Amino acid sequence: MTFFVTSAGSGKGADLGGLDGADKHCQTLAQAAGASAKTWHAYLSTQGSGAVNAKDRIGKGPWQNSKGEVIAKDVADLHGASNNLTKQTAITEKGEAVNGRGDKPNTHDILTGSQPDGTAFSGSDDRTCGNWTKSGADGAVMVGHHDRTGLDDSPPAKSWNSSHPSRGGCSQDALKGTGGNGLFYCFAVN
Fold this sequence. Notes:
Distance between the termini: 11 Å
Shape: globular
Order of helices and strands: EHEEEHEHEEHE
């Protein structure tokens, strides 16, 4: 296993304790699943001075889920049209499916803070909930749809990493309100 969707978020909405806290969460979940020999990073971008691109944090690939299914061969494949990220393959470290559109509750909004090409947002609009430190009513986070479905057939609705910003802030309730639960992607970098 070199890729998974977290089976649980921080419980504090988009406050993940920054990138370090998110990476630690990935490492802890991977360790519990028996994959602690690898170094795990969260697929998250940051904004502002010293912005970090999610695509630069996750190693070179290839990446496989816990069932051995290849998600992508490399970074270009992951961000291209031929990646294998679907509701059936974007599973947790436990090998469990994540609820998608049509399931109760829908939890297909996956935190990324990223543009479709895996890069950070510029400008002053918050798309990372204060670089993963906010859990209140202010701020927003860009999410993707792990099941590649949305309200229509537009590219953003089908994007695994850049579908829409959260509404109503960065709290756990705000994330649930748009179809999320504070989950994010984890990749083995080695």
